[in-house]
């Protein structure tokens, strides 16, 4: 009877050992990783150069696609556009007169006027160019402000554009010998106007997507050159959960696998979209017992559209291997 009681005491002990071992193994197989949310960043660059006259966005501003990011001074370009519009109106008037049969004398007068305008434009351009050259020298010596230099630059650009416009007017006046050639000139001018309008549109930089302004390189009043980035926008519609997986488990994960990412009691199904090919040590702020002091690879999981996590926020993922 005593032996039986002893055996009964051994059975619970064995169960405890088995359960403890199971919990230990389960805990080892379910590894927790901490990661951070990142967003696809879109750089908003300018295709033109000039002075920024408007920049309504700040760091952290949420923008919608099509919102104004910045406006660059286009005074000289607008003037040239208006001059070309006037040229087209004159061409249309000349065409109408040719069709009425009174074009020859009108054409001669047009050439005379156009030649006078062109000579005047050349003279003004030469003076404006020299003034800008002098202004550059004075600015280098610290004798004038940047605003004065910028105004001289705008005047020089405007004068150069006027030369181009008046030369086009002169060429058109000289070739206005028939209704057919005049119509061709009108078609050419309309094409030039469309091209200039497309260029003018580039002086207003619009947001390419919905998102948050993450970096800002320029402010209102700054001069910017073509090809430079004004702001970086973290897109709303493409966010990733980034964590570091030990290389030992690399064969256990593959593209398009779905895992649950959790934060603040919410879970999101995320899809593996990026597996780095180079290993590194896990950044200190993302280390857990699962990847601390171990060679790891960066993994990116695409979060769903309804995910409320913001770039920079942390979340966790548990993997069972």
- Average pLDDT value? 85
Strand content: 25-35%
Query: Which bin fits the share of residues in helices?
Result: 40-55%
First-last Cα distance? 47 Å
Largest sheet: 6 strands, antiparallel, barrel
The spatial strand order of the largest sheet comes to 1-8-11-10-9-12
Please count the beta strands (DSSP E, at least 2 residues each): 12
Count the helices. How many?
Answer: 5
* Count of domains: 3
**Can you tell me the overall shape?**
elongated
Order of helices and strands: HEEEEHHHHEEEEEEEE
Radius of gyration: 35 Å
Which class best fits the helix and strand makeup?
A: alpha+beta
Low-confidence stretches: 1-7, 17-28
Structure write-up:
This protein is α+β, with helices and mostly antiparallel strands and 321 residues long. 45% of the residues lie in helices and 29% in strands. A 6-stranded antiparallel barrel has the order 1-8-11-10-9-12. The chain has a 4-stranded antiparallel β-sheet with strand order 5-4-2-7, with no helix packed on it. The radius of gyration is 35 Å and the shape is elongated. The model is unreliable at 1-7 and 17-28 (pLDDT under 50).
């Amino acid at each position: 009877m005593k032996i039986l009681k002893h055996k009964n005491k051994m059975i619970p002990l064995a169960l405890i050992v088995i359960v403890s071992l199971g919990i230990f193994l389960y805990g080892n197989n379910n590894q927790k990783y901490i990661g951070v949310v990142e967003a696809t960043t879109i750089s908003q660059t300018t295709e033109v150069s000039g002075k920024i006259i408007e920049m309504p966005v700040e760091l952290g501003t949420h923008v919608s696609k099509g919102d104004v990011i910045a406006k660059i001074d286009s005074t000289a370009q607008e003037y040239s556009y208006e001059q070309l519009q006037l040229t087209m109106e004159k061409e249309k008037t000349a065409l109408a007169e040719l069709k009425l049969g009174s074009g020859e004398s009108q054409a001669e007068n047009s050439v005379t006027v156009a030649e006078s305008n062109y000579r005047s434009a050349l003279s003004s351009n030469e003076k404006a160019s020299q003034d800008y050259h002098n202004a550059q020298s004075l600015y280098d010596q610290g004798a004038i402000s940047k605003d004065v230099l910028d105004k001289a630059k705008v005047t020089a650009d405007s004068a150069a554009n006027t030369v181009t416009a008046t030369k086009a007017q002169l060429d058109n006046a000289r070739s206005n010998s028939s209704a057919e050639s005049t119509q061709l000139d009108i078609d050419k001018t309309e094409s030039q106007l469309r091209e200039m309008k497309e260029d003018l549109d580039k002086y207003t930089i619009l947001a390419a997507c919905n998102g948050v302004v993450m970096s800002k390189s320029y402010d209102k009043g700054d001069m910017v050159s073509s090809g430079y980035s004004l702001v970086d926008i973290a897109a709303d519609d493409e966010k990733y959960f980034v964590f570091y997986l030990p290389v030992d488990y690399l064969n256990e994960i593959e593209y398009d696998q779905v895992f649950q990412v959790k934060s603040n009691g919410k879970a999101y199904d995320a899809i593996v979209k990026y597996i780095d090919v180079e290993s590194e040590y896990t950044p200190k702020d993302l280390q857990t017992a699962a990847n601390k002091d171990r060679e790891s690879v960066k993994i990116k999981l695409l979060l769903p559209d309804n995910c409320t996590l913001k770039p920079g926020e942390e979340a966790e993922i548990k993997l069972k291997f």
